[in-house]
What we know:
Elements: E1 2-4, H1 7-13, H2 24-36, E2 39-46, E3 49-55, E4 65-66, H3 71-84, H4 112-116, H5 136-141, H6 158-170, H7 176-185, E5 210-211, H8 213-224, E6 228-229, E7 232-233, H9 237-243, E8 245-247, E9 258-259, E10 267-268, H10 271-275, E11 287-288, E12 298-302, E13 306-311, E14 316-322, H11 329-336
Helix pairs in contact: 2-11, 3-7
Amino acid sequence: MRYPIHFAITLSLTSVSAFAEIRATDCAQAAKYSESKRGVSMLVMQNGRTIFEHYANGGSTGGRWPIFSGTKSFWGMAALAAAHDGLLKLDDLVADTITEWKSDPRKSRITIRQLLNQTDGIEGASFLQHASIRDRNTMANRLPTLAEPGASFIYGPSHLQIFSELLRRKLGGRSTIAYFEGHVSDRLGLGRLNYKKDARGNPLPATGFELTAREWARLGELILGNGNYRWRQIVPANLLREALAGSQANPSYGLTFWLNSQAANGREADLERMLDLPWQNVQWNSVCICKDAPADMVVALGSHYQRLFIIPSLKAIIVRQGSEAKFSDAHFLRLVLGREG
């Protein structure tokens, strides 16, 4: 079961105050808070123009910064591009391509969609990020399942690593990195990306990119453009909606994006702390990022509070980057939106 975000419905239900213009004075208060929590950059765009930009603690306009798991959302766009090209369908069985899974009673039922929303039941396997691993794809394909497909949300790098192998096979051995660059990063004007390749040349889709705040904001422009970036289509709007739909196991996570769709009746949570808990102990129902932010907010999220907040109903993009420190997404967003105090 999927829970799509229908922007038109959300717009009609969101209070009038949700459409207010974001004010630079409110952004300055948010920047002060972010800087006190070791923030290095903050960028706010609305209606296609930059309304606030701030750098501190060594950050700068041209300084790239690790976005960690924010990398995942770019590879999510590559998956949608592959679907648009006819290489795959999101509800295809992975075992139709990774045929060694056909004899496994659980893996034989896993879909590509479940890889992308991390509900395939496979071990998260954070160790796949270690640089010493020679062939991450093979190691990921052999990981055990810990739950029935679709039943649980288990966060980790394994799922996109398996997708990388699936895409490699769909491409007939052609480079997955070349496909990603041709269909996503080059079209966004992003170069010199760190793919953290293993000895066999496999990328690590779960993490690795370093971007400036302005560069990361381009992904937000793509979302606000319904799959178009500066008048060039990267993914069709109907496929993009697929990325912004939660699952039964985790309504707050789509296909590599976090969602604020449960804001109306949800409980605010520190997602990074939740992800540090054993997956069996986490309940994702009724979880939201910020109760006072619009329910249509979409987030690309990286460790140590790297954030790309995208709010379609406000036509707004908010980038926050920084070093590890205790930080509240909800408090930060309330400051930006003028709803704190």
